[in-house]
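Narrative progress, year one. The postdoctoral researcher (J.K.) led the effort to move from monomer predictions toward full complexes, under supervision of the PI. The following entry was the first complex the group processed end to end, covering 1014 residues in total.
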Amino acid sequence: MAVDPRFFAPEAPLSLGQAAELTGADLAGDADFQIAGIASSAHARPGELAFLDGDGRAAPDLSPALQAVVTTPAMRGHVPEGVSVLETRFARHAHSVIAKALFRPRHLMPTGSERLNENASIHPKALIAPGAVVGAGAAIGEGTVVLPNAVIGPGVQIGRNCVIGAGVSIICALIGDHVSILSGARIGEAGFGVLSGPAGAEDAPHFGRVIIQDHVTIGANTCIDRGVFEDTIIGERTKIDNLCQIAHNVQLGRSVIVAAFGGISGSVRVGDGSMLGGRVGIADHVTVGERVSLAASAGLFRDVDAGETWGGTPAKPIRQWMREIAWLQKQTNPKKTS
Amino acid sequence: MAVDPRFFAPEAPLSLGQAAELTGADLAGDADFQIAGIASSAHARPGELAFLDGDGRAAPDLSPALQAVVTTPAMRGHVPEGVSVLETRFARHAHSVIAKALFRPRHLMPTGSERLNENASIHPKALIAPGAVVGAGAAIGEGTVVLPNAVIGPGVQIGRNCVIGAGVSIICALIGDHVSILSGARIGEAGFGVLSGPAGAEDAPHFGRVIIQDHVTIGANTCIDRGVFEDTIIGERTKIDNLCQIAHNVQLGRSVIVAAFGGISGSVRVGDGSMLGGRVGIADHVTVGERVSLAASAGLFRDVDAGETWGGTPAKPIRQWMREIAWLQKQTNPKKTS
Amino acid sequence: MAVDPRFFAPEAPLSLGQAAELTGADLAGDADFQIAGIASSAHARPGELAFLDGDGRAAPDLSPALQAVVTTPAMRGHVPEGVSVLETRFARHAHSVIAKALFRPRHLMPTGSERLNENASIHPKALIAPGAVVGAGAAIGEGTVVLPNAVIGPGVQIGRNCVIGAGVSIICALIGDHVSILSGARIGEAGFGVLSGPAGAEDAPHFGRVIIQDHVTIGANTCIDRGVFEDTIIGERTKIDNLCQIAHNVQLGRSVIVAAFGGISGSVRVGDGSMLGGRVGIADHVTVGERVSLAASAGLFRDVDAGETWGGTPAKPIRQWMREIAWLQKQTNPKKTS
């Protein structure tokens, strides 16, 4: 996916040779290759610089269009013939240094001192309450209400008949029609990704977006992080309660229900019509089918097929969980007769 | 309970006949009945329109004053003689459409561009910090401090000697004296209620309030939702930590302690002096007696009598929980001798 | 530790005799002793007034420099010879009344109506976005970006090249260089401490600070409370996800990882390089060694040695937890053959 220029300003272009100089990585390949964008190695398109990290044991998932990659000595053997290589011990970190040199988040750039930026497009029938801030290039549709002290970042697109609650902040996001975002929700922040650099732990930069489809409701103080390179997507009519955490690259289907304190880790997929009880947690990269029910407080660490009901931590089919609870109680209850 | 006109502006009145037209429901009864208000069927008073939903198997709890009701074919048989009926497959949804036509949330209406609305009543000895927003009809008492960028919605009443933290938002709420609400808390948002409409999942509108009594403390980024038709009530001297979720229609007694990440689901009652450890969750409609202790991380799904101590998920008396933990460990520990 | 005058304004000094009058406590000792500060009894320095609470059974941890103490009848016998005593049934409460008479939080005092206080020190190469509020005596370093509607309290010191997200609030805190605080985080609020006074539950006042070292990242809507008398400290390069709660007096080491919904209770210590999975909770006063891993959803109630991996609730070594899960499933699975 191309980095969205509404949210990230392209800086001066960089050749692979310049990137090697910037990061101290060893270059093998075309020094004049112009880096047109950044991506993961699984999704890289022509012109994009990817990275390849890991211990070298498993073969990585590689885009057939891969042209240039930053990688570690351990992974070097997995790079196909003809792909240009920047090699360094801290490949993921070097890639992030290059990415940050190529793209600058617009929400960190100065855009004047006006609350409502003159380059924002606000429909005359939208209502912007006192104290709200709207950045350059943002658009707010007809009938949408932005409540006091909400912050709409540069380039953010909000459709018609939405309600944006008091003190909400939205960056790097596209919002459909009839969306309600209750007070204090945080849409589009960088996700939680820690990578190793020469000086220690560093934050992984995030260049994706948050896409919120029509008729979605987001609860108060809930957080939805933008993707690393791809998008975080919340499907139509999905309803999310207060104080939930939706991590980077998550895809929730349509009409998904997430009760309070729901925690959906990175890259999880949840199918249409699934229902998550209060305080359900799902580990990263798990796939949940359609119409799945997860009982309150479930901690899910594996995929679940469509239509199933699971509970417990680690979560399992609910009948098995219930059986374990009943059996354990029976074994230890001093009142039992046998 | 009547809808509070300080928070919801009454629109043009509606007859039952007009309501049938608005929703496409079948009318049986008095078409000229003027809908004076809205309620649940258990609490409806004369003139109020209630709804009756369900599969028809259990007899519903009905107010003796019930005069008019929106209901489904399945529930129709439970409607007493002489009560006017609007019948439709999506009864709860039709009721919400009528309710939204009758009452308009004032916090979504335009009230000018001034941060401190000229129709707010702010005591000369209250302190309103820069960036705070106070809506029309709000009142703030003597000695109360409203910190920067807090948002006090229209009609909100705040007593004396309170502290309202930075970035807090309060709507549809009445706050007593000596109340502290720490930064980022969200008071009075609509609760999480999903109902079925012809187009799919819809948000249940909320017409109740949040009542916070004297000497209550609410932690940072905690959320307390307003009730559906009745109120959410936080009793005197109750102390709630950061990042808690108190759902619609909850009633916490006096001097209740709720530690961080406490999650109290809809319509729960907690008695005076009860103590909830960190990350305790309580399922909806559960009643907890006075002076109950719930151990950290307990997930409670049933009522608990006064004075008891419970723990675990699902929660049980703490001795039984401890017994299970010890027994299970003994059975599986390779170091055990027998 | 002395109370930091950047965050708490010293009021008129108080003698022990005046303090007795203010609280109704019985004085035994030097009525003219000038109270120069406040502290816990374990850390009191010369001139500071401490308190001593408890049931009298265990011998308390006392500073050798203790000169004056507020205590209960039950604890009176533990006060060393020569130490002046204020005796009252509600010793902790009386101490807090005296403390609040001596020190006044600057963030609750009026400092004019300007968003950017004239007595704040903002580097010309810092970027302060529209709607942000900066208090008197605050300092913001070169290259730091403060996003819209963030609130920087009086006296707060922020270093170079930090990002302070939209709607963040910071009080009573010192922030290093290269720190990122994502939107809606709450830094420096009073912690959750409930003490008994004659009228019932009262909030314990907090006079400590939050110290955030270089290269730390704090997630969106995360809360970090200031200490009671000492500081809450977040070590260099520690990375904290969204919606976490870090309580008063916690000390996190360097390069600690805390995933979403992490809950660290009061006075917990976590060693360098430890990793906490999602929704990990740690009970108060627990000490976690270096390079410890806690599995997602663990609830830890005891100390863990360096290098160990624990999981479950109550948490135990991960192998034992895994064994229990497997054994229980085997005992109750109807498909098993024996």
